Amino acid sequence: MNKHVISFLSAAALMCTATIASAQKTTAASLWLTKADRSALFAKQKEALEFKAGGKPNDVTITVDDKQTYQPIDGFGFALTGGSAMHIIRMSADSRVALLKNLFAVNDNNIGVSYLRLSIGASDLNEKAFSYDDMPAGQTDPTLKHFDLGPDKHDVIPVMKQILAINPSIKILGSPWSPPAWMKTNNDTRGGRLKPEYWGTYAKYLVKYIQGMKAQGINIDAITVQNEPLHPGNNPSLLLVAADEGAFIKNNLGPAFKAAGIKTKIILYDHNCDRPDYPISILNDKAAAKYIDGSGFHLYGGDISALSTVHNAHPEKNVYFTEQMVVEPENESTIDMRWPLKNLIIGATRNWSRNVLEWNLAADQDYKPYTDRGGCPSCQGAVTINKNEVKKNVAYYTIAHASKFVRPGSVRIASNNLDKLPNVAFKTPDGKKVLIVANTSEAAQDFDISYAGKMLAAHLDKGSVGTYTW
């Protein structure tokens, strides 16, 4: 045989061998698991997982496709309420550092929280209601001469500075519960409406908040205009109907931000999924919409698909998930993460949300503090703090399954959603894939994960949650 022919056949054989080897090559994957019986709580599993070519697929398969991409992700986290900060700042220095590293660092077994929500003034999870410009009864301060971040200087601001030392790039959302009482029709921290003559003053008040926090080294990435604008029963709170919120953004807040050179994003609504008409009606007004980055949602009412309703009406605007309380019984022998995983981590992001925030970061064993006349007496923290002791609750583990791996700048990618195995997939900035799966059924589930023509055999016990990375 001609030596050139032999050489050609040898080269072809080598190519064929390389192709076969490539086809048989496996891809390693990791699993972080939480089991309903608490035998695993956000624990990395030791057994090796591999995507393998060939083989017969399971009847139940989740197929991940990174060629189809959706919205970018800004982060996952909690509300750092004044009450949360109060408990944290009262811990010993060593205990506080250990807790904050566990929450905000990414390495080792830390969970890498990447997004926080602060209240502008008090929320209902402060010891008492306050604003940054409270005046004696009958007095006003239209020039905001007495504006001062006052109470936040004792807890929220020092805690935020420690958090920023751990994670300087964390995103921060600010939300007001109420303007100063003297700006309101009822002169009370609870309920009432913003007096028309103070709309411009209140816009400047919000500008001063952003500027004041920046002077403390804290950059406010975005604000919502009003927490739960259709729920004036909290203390503090404000009734702000859609027409008023739209007019306030268009005529006061947007122009005030522009005049002051404020780059902080404006997010409207910040309330339940039962009223998608509220944000849509404002976004339909182009004069208001030019100042608006997107809409924020809670899920105490309605369906999480409302986020897609608003996205589809205005795909040029962003969607955010800004609050949900997640509670479990204290000292329970099991942990049930099915609802928050299905509806928040998976549901919100599959409906275009760029973030997921849960309510709230910390409380004590009695769910304190909270305000009188409308504060929340049952709002469990993601962690329960009793002096220097920390107990991690269901909200902590829910966020952990996403925050550690789905880093800011990740993008959601396609995966088929299954009734018994709701899931969502992401591609991280460094090219890794993340798949979060919840077994919401009453039985164990065997399934395959398919990616790029390879299969990984997976199993989740009933009520278990797994984050798969590769």
Any overview of this molecule?
There is one protein chain. Helix 5 (199-215) packs across helix 6 (242-260) and helix 6 packs across helix 7 (277-283). The strands form three sheets. Strands 1-3-20-19-4-16-17-18-21 form a nine-stranded mixed β-barrel. An eight-stranded parallel barrel has the order 5-6-7-8-9-10-11-12, surrounded by five helices. It has a three-stranded mixed β-sheet with strand order 13-14-15. The protein is built from eleven helices and 21 strands. The protein is globular and about 75 Å long. It has helices at residues 3-24, 82-89, 93-104, 156-166, 199-215, 242-260, 277-283, 286-289, 306-313, 338-350, 394-403, and strands at residues 27-34, 43-44, 49-53, 61-72, 75-79, 115-120, 171-176, 222-224, 265-273, 294-302, 318-323, 353-358, 362-363, 383-386, 389-392, 411-415, 423-427, 433-438, 445-451, 454-460, 465-469. The chain is 28% helix and 26% strand. It has two domains: 25-70 and 415-469, Golgi alpha-mannosidase II (Immunoglobulin-like, Sandwich), CATH 2.60.40.1180; 74-408, Glycosidases (TIM Barrel), CATH 3.20.20. It has 470 residues and is an alpha/beta fold. Strand 17 (423-427) and strand 18 (433-438) form a beta hairpin.
